[in-house]
Amino acid sequence: MSDATLDDRGRLTLPKEIRERYGDNYHVVDVHDGIKLIPVAEDPLEALRDEFDDVDKSSDELRAEAREASLDEAGR
């Protein structure tokens, strides 16, 4: 963890190690106890393709499984 301070124009500079690891684009999310920076890939669509490259099921199959799991969790 490291500290960062806003400059007189309200800008925040992230440490070099963070920028090198996560990139330069972030969503800023207001959470109940602070803020959260979520890295945004340069090409979000390509990042999703990479993330799900090894998934063998169709979106319909995944949706059906999620629906079943939700119903089970809700105490169907």
Automatic annotation (TrEMBL):
SMART domains from the UniProt entry: SpoVT_AbrB
Disordered: annotated segments: 52-76
Keyword Lyase: no
UniProt keywords, alphabetically: DNA-binding
GO molecular function, a single term: DNA binding
Signal sequence bounds: none
Domain SpoVT-AbrB: 4-45
Protein name per UniProt: AbrB/MazE/SpoVT family DNA-binding domain-containing protein
UniProt organism field: Halorientalis brevis
